[in-house]
Amino acid sequence: MLKADSMTYSVTRLLLKATLSFALLLPITGCDAPLGPSSVEPANFWPEEPESLVLLGHDVSRGVLALVNDQLTDVPFLTGECMIGSGAAERIVAHRQGPDSLDGTADDDPFDTITELDEVGLVGEQTLNLLAEAAERLGLVPVLELEGVPFTEDEVQDTLLFANGASLDVLDVEAGLDIRAARSLTYGRPYQSLVEVAERPFVGPSALTAMKWFAPSWVDSLE
After folding, report:
1. Which CATH number fits domain 53-137: 1.10.150, 1.10.12, 2.160.20, 2.60.40?
2. Alpha-carbon distance 148 to 128, whole Å?
């Protein structure tokens, strides 16, 4: 009887040891070990921008993009007026024009950001600075932003003249303003600043944008 009990005890011990050994081996052989914090490389959510980009403020960047995206900005203009290298000038124009090397066609690829411009071959810090200086000289850098609509110095003057002098029909029909905005503008005259124009009822981003684009031709028609 004692012998049988002893055998039962021995078998039980062997089973327990086998079970424990198997359990200890599970993290190694049965499943993948969990990755610790040091084993995972963090994603680079904030890639470094080119050093040259920090030299251009937001408004200056708008002026530079307006300059390089203008179809009249050709290689001679970039090398002469803007004083940048011919290699960079040729690449800027080629990028804007697209594969067919023509402006105003379906494959045009204008610059959307300063980063895109900075990535063009031979365009670096010096080129961007020269373009920024040219944009300021040419009056392309916005000096005022109203309702998210940027205005250069010339655009401020033209739009203010337009807001003060255009008839209701011109505002409504030709410039395409909402009739409520057009009437509001005529009722609030005269305006001393474009800020006063933007404060009129029903004059929001769409009205300001329409006025900004239509005003130069209207002002020219007065001469």
Report:
1. 1.10.150
2. 25
